[in-house]
From TrEMBL:
N-terminal signal peptide: none
Protein name per UniProt: NAD(P)/FAD-dependent oxidoreductase
InterPro entries xrefs: Amino_oxidase, FAD/NAD-bd_sf
Domain annotation Amine oxidase: ranges: 15-386
Species name: Methylobacterium marchantiae
SUPFAM superfamilies per the UniProt record, alphabetical: Nucleotide-binding domain
One Pfam family linked to the record: Amino_oxidase
Highest taxon listed in the record's lineage: Bacteria
Length: 500
């Protein structure tokens, strides 16, 4: 026997829970299904191991959208703390502050290398690659070939597991948007000379240069656990241990039928008028019957997976960084999180520290399938090589694997996503894709939330009032929440369709 709801949401990450919370707040019947048997939050959950807390990656709570910030405060009004941002780059045995400090970078690189970087930058600006297609092309145009090879190539190829020449320029434009070398140098000189002033009201802030952020005192999972509780209090339901494996749509009645399987093998069926999905596009399309024509394109979409090795160690000499980017090619680790610096409450004993070593991989490859003991041994050896802590000081460890952490921006992803989107929007007017994996779009947490917020507006209005695909990294579309959203629609405005 099936259970009926007005709106069914697939996935209890930031996008799915935002949609569920706002719909239930507006008195709409909503059910959120989550595959994880224990936790909500998706990649933004907080993991607990023997009293130590850590993120799957680090999640800053910073947004240019007032609507998003207000929603964070509404969900968790009393538990945010202000944290100073400090991050560094580790490259060839030396640390570089990030954002850069000009004199430190000059000293570390040396006068000859620094001069070569500036000349390379000037050459790239004078003779740019026309219509850059790859990540390499885009960064070379913006920063010069030499800086690309020092500060972009190794780390980026660790993250994506492919050559920078095979990664679309879209990813660079999205993730580094708003930052140019001239601005970075001016900012770095001001920092080095102690002349850095607070931004004036209304002055744009480049995300990569922010100096502080807010953070839940016991990790980002606090926000999403609170959201799930509020959905239930408002009459909605958040159901764990439900992996959606079948979706069909009856055009005659406008009703969706969704099947979900639980860990014990039992199956449940739900019907709904609206379907909101933050599931990976590839998985969603594969679950729809009859198969969409764009199934081939959906199956071509790729994902990068991720694992964290959390090392708990005795403190001999603490360091203040929130995280450190490991650009050095001599180790496999890509980034190191220092969870005590995210919040002191993440570490229950002052005599210990908890570091999260992040390894980027593909599900099923050698790293992913390595036994936990092997991963811990690797992490201990590499943290010792970097010099952050002594391997012998490690007293406990935990490994967490995160599949489909990042949608891959390869050379064909844009065309594949466009084909899938066109068919789904044409044939299924009450299907709404939201979030990072739901849209195969490398959105941060706040942008994922905004896609859900605008989707709820669409459902409540009864037609596609907003084009949520305009929500992107640092996009003006999200600067002030909903205001201006209609004006920011693409020139090829979607034809309004009834969705509720």
């Amino acid at each position: 026997m099936s259970q009926h709801t007005e709106t069914l949401v697939i996935g209890a990450g930031p996008a799915g829970l935002t949609a569920g919370y706002l719909l239930s707040k507006n008195g709409r019947d909503v059910v959120v299904l989550e595959r994880d048997p224990r936790q909500v939050g998706g990649i933004s959950r907080t993991v607990s191991h023997n009293g130590f807390l850590f993120d799957i990656g680090g999640h800053r709570f910073f947004s240019k959208s007032k609507a998003v910030v207000d929603l964070w405060d509404e969900l968790l009004p009393d538990d945010f703390i202000d944290r100073p941002r400090l991050s560094r780059i580790f490259y060839k045995g030396k640390y570089y502050a990030y954002p850069l400090k000009a004199f430190e970078a000059l000293r570390n690189l040396g006068v000859l290398q620094s001069t070569a970087c500036v000349l390379s930058y000037l050459y790239a600006r004078a003779r740019p690659i026309e219509q850059p297609k790859s990540f390499h092309d885009w960064v070379r145009n913006q920063f010069g070939e030499r800086l690309f090879s020092i500060f972009f190539k190794t780390y980026t190829e660790k993250v994506w597991g492919m050559s920078c020449d095979a990664i679309s320029a879209d990813w660079a434009a999205q993730r580094i948007k708003g930052l140019d070398l001239g601005a970075a140098i001016r900012d770095a000189l001001a920092r080095s000379l102690g002349l850095k002033a607070r931004p004036k009201p209304g002055e744009p802030v480049i995300k990569t240069l922010i100096e502080s952020f807010r953070y839940p005192r016991r990790g980002p999972g606090m926000v999403w656990e609170a959201a799930a509780a509020k959905i239930a209090a408002q009459g909605g339901r958040v159901l764990l241990d439900r992996g959606v494996d079948g979706v069909s749509f009856d055009a005659a009645t406008g009703i969706w039928t969704v099947s979900a399987i639980r860990g014990d093998g039992t199956r449940e069926t739900y019907t709904a008028r609206n379907l909101v999905s933050s599931a990976p596009v590839r998985e969603l399309v594969d679950s729809i019957t009859p198969r969409p024509l764009s199934t081939f394109q959906a199956r071509a979409l790729q994902y990068r997976d991720f694992l964290t090795v959390a090392l708990i160690a005795k403190v001999r000499e603490d360091f203040p960084d929130n995280w450190i980017y490991i650009h050095d090619p001599s180790v496999m680790v890509g980034r190191v999180q220092n969870f005590r610096s995210w919040s002191p409450e993440m570490v229950p004993d002052d005599a210990y520290t908890c570091l999260g070593l992040e390894y980027f991989c593909f599900e099923g490859d050698g790293l992913w399938t390595m036994a936990d003991e092997g991963l811990v041994a690797l992490a201990k050896a590499e943290i010792g090589k970097i010099g952050l802590i002594a391997p012998d000081d490690v007293v406990d460890a935990c490994v967490v694997r995160q599949p489909k952490a990042y949608p891959v921006y390869d050379e064909s992803y844009r065309d594949n996503v466009a084909t899938v989107r066109l068919e789904l929007e044409r044939d299924f007017p009450t299907l709404h894709l939201v979030g990072r994996n739901g849209m195969h779009k490398y959105n941060n947490q706040d942008h994922a939330m905004m896609t859900a917020m605008l989707t709820v507006e669409n459902i409540l209005a009864g037609y596609r009032r907003h084009d949520i695909w305009r929500v992107n990294e640092d996009a003006e579309y999200t600067e002030s929440g909903f205001s201006g959203a209609d004006e920011a629609l693409t020139s090829e405005r979607l034809v309004p369709r009834k969705v509720a």
